Fold this protein.
Amino acid sequence: MEWDGETGGVIRCNSCSELRLDTPVEFDGQGRAPCPDQLFLASISGCLLTTFLHFARRLGADVRSVNIHSGADLSMGEEGYRIRRVSSRILFEAAPEAIELAERCARLSREYCHITRSLEASFPVNVEIEARARP
């Protein structure tokens, strides 16, 4: 992570291109890129997604689309802002005959996502699953 000389920074990974972050406008930043909170939630969603995809490929689930939405409940206390809860929703569409198998993949992603499992020691993490049949 390197400061960009303004209100954000650049993350450089060995295996990926640069990723930028910025301070939100309401906190005197420029809001040119996601803030750390958004990247944190994106990491949770990303882990759930890649874990779901791993199991879907491994088990041969005919999945048509997957969307993961994550949000956090924040509170302000004496110690400043804190995350009190994270809620995620896995929404997927699968062939009608693959719904049960895809639901199993979603349950397995909730069970094996190492990021959500690690966070549960600090605050509640709720993961809901919603399935839709799509021919």
User: Anything to note?
Assistant: The mean pLDDT is 94. Strands lie at 2-3, 8-11, 19-22, 63-77, 80-94, 125-133. The chain has two domains: 1-34, 36-133. The radius of gyration is 17 Å.
